[in-house]
Amino acid sequence: MYLSKRISLTRNRQLGALCWALILAAGLCARFFPVRGLPFPVRIAVAVLLGTAGVVVVCTTLGLFTEKGDERSAENERRTNAALFTLFFLAMGAGLFLLKDGRTVLIGKGELLVIFSSVCLAKDLLFLAYERWSG
User: Fold this and answer.
1) Could you tell me how many helices (H) and strands (E) the chain has, helices first?
2) Which DSSP state fits 106?
3) 79 in Cβ contact with 49 (< 8 Å)
4) How far apart are CA 89 and CA 41, in angstroms?
5) Ramachandran quadrant class, 63 (left: phi over 0; alpha: psi -120 to 50; beta: rest)
6) What would the pLDDT profile of 93-111 be if each residue is shown by its tens digit?
């Protein structure tokens, strides 16, 4: 049976990166183009595409149908998480330094989707880079 086969961890991350890129592109397009002005069949097609991408993201994130990683992949995962946390820490520090006293930052749902999908895409791409070029 096809569903009983396991895919490699690298293929899992490639699928995740592709789907996060689709979600990021849709989020960016939705910010600049009126979605309600699209014809109904196009909206249905986009909804089906994004729904499929969402299911694939959930499956790849949970590791369903994915083989178990080895020590090298665990080390690359740790390095990826450390690098992303460091970048997030530096961004928050820059935000604290650059914001004037008493200013607040409001992040809407659309911006949160773009930020979250960007971070997840960066995590998958950084992991793939470590898998490809680490010793």
Assistant:
1) 4, 0
2) -
3) no
4) 43
5) left
6) 888 888 877 778 888 998 9
Task: Report the distance separating Cα 134 and Cα 61, nearest Å.
Answer: 23
Rounded Cα distance between 63 and 58, Å, is 8
Looking at residue 41, its amino acid is P
Q: Please state, in angstroms and rounded to a whole number, the distance separating the CA atoms of residues 94 and 89.
A: 9
C-beta separation of 56 from 19 below 8 A: yes
> The tokens 């006293």 sit on which residue?
101
Q: Are 6 and 65 in contact (CB under 8 A)?
A: yes
Q: Map tokens 């914001």 to a residue.
A: 99
Contact between residue 32 and residue 122 where contact means Cβ atoms under 8 Å apart: no
What does the pLDDT average to over 120-133?
Answer: 93
